[in-house]
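Standup notes
- DV: blocked on the single-chain target, sequence here:
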Amino acid sequence: MKTTRVTARLAGLAVGLALGVSALAVTRASAADTPQKGGDLIMLRAEQLRTLLPSQPTDNASIWPIEEVFNTLLVPKQDGSGVAPSLATSWEQSKDGLDWTFHLRHGVKFTNGQEMTSKDVKFSIEETSKPSSPFAFINAAITKVTTPDAYTVVIHTAKPFAPLPADMAIFANSIVPYDYAGMTPEAFSKKPIGTGPFMLKSWTPGVEATFERNPNYWDKGKPYLDSITFKVVADSNTRANEVQGGQAQIDEFPAFSSITALQNSGTAKIGTYASSRVDFLSINTQKKPFDNVDVRRAIASAVDKNTLVKVVLFGHGKPAGAYMSPSSWSHDPSITGYPYDLKAAKAFLAKSPVPDGFKATITVASGNSDQQTMAQIIQASLAKLGIKITIQTLDPSAAYDAKQNGNYDMGFSYDTTDIVDPDEIIRFTGSYDGGSHGLYSFYKNKEIDSWIAKAATLNDQDARQKIYFKVEKAWNEAQPLVPLFYTPELYAYASNVHDFHPFVTGNYNLADVWMSK
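- DV (later): unblocked, structure below
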């Protein structure tokens, strides 16, 4: 059987160390220890869960809980080196490269007791392929899905499509029951039925969502936890205090300024994990004067990334150049971005329609001390160009909505890839039609879009890489976003939490996590 997999040429498997992280702090049980059943884990986060319908979210705050409720045909490996079986136990590509056949695991049941079959898989993929799904682009190469029998699915493409196995590991292609088990998509989002390790128990939008163990999970013996609760706490200081005080077990993305205090607390630890994360200063290119490339280049040249890494990240990161993460083989290390140079920034602005500067706002999320500090540093720097920036503070949900709807001037965003192939994230951040309108920049470039589409048809990784480098260079010239820095994923967690290891792709995989008494 011929099985085509994503190759493992990742430049950043040791990205944590490459980014200057002093050590990987991970609480693991010894080889002699056995994971214990039980425990109610509370994870604190700044962002709220918005939907549990797999085909709809573009935000990690919704994506990562979805991955605990649903399964995909394949899953990314922890180090990002390829994909592994999940609901599909094996798969192969036809000789002409146009058909991918997936063989399903037998005996898997949804939480309503219904057995999962190829009918459910076909329905799920077709739902995500609809134009109403932000991730329809991920399935754009698919022409049809056929089901020769209850445990076989064949995905047909118009042209050979190298990323397809990786695309079958993305949350958006999670398997839901056929016709949403008779519910409307809206109703299903509130009462989801999946095959994953956890199932929804309760959900108070904007406050918290609790998921309990699925007693009939197909991966026998898992999960270990009784429940997991995602609780919204916008203020980073409050989150840190609650983990230190034992009111919660995990703080998702603590402020870098809190690392030392957390490490010295005696009750909490810091975990830093290899990551595909890239942080950006988002620029709304559909608004004047940000539609002008020289204005954007001036802004990029006035951002002191080294100072941001030093002051905001306390050295736990690297200034960013290319918009693709160093964790991917698609990353072009020759791209260093626009260096901090106020003289060059003034020259760019002099060529623009607003040579003497202008007024604008930069939107930050309340409670996010890192964003507040970054905004103040950038505000002071842009003032030297005559660009007068007002810092607008919104609650995290409103800040997210403002970016989604294009109701902002500048703000902060980040991306992480959900799959091991670069096709998803190079589209998501670089293409208007990639699910987030170019990570909320609303930048359009048809030439870039055509290059990305061409690369996906090639199985030769070197040939694909050359095209991706060309994309990154063109994107760098346009600067629709300013890449700020590459960072590891940072979590604070209680000392009795074991085997919590977020993947390079950001997946939690909480089915493996357990708590000692």
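- Follow-up: The two ends are 46 Å apart (CA to CA).
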